[in-house]
Amino acid sequence: MGVAARIVLYAPNDYIAKWACSRAFLRIAQLEETMSDYRSDSELMWLCREGHLAPVRVSNDLFFVLRKALELSQRSNGAFDITVGPFVSLWRRARKTKQMPTENELNEAKKLVGWQKVQLDDSNQTVKLAVAGMKLDLGGIAKGYAADCALKVIKKFGISRALIELGGDIVLGDPPPDRKGWRIGILDEKGKPKKVLELANCAVSTSGSTEQFIEIDGRRYAHIIDPKTGLGLTKLVLVTVIAKDGITADSLATALCVLGEKEGRKLAETYGSIAFFQEKSLD
Ligand code: AMP
Ligand code: MG
Question: For the chain, which has fewer Cβ within 10 Å, the N-terminal or C-terminal residue?
Answer without folding.
Answer: C
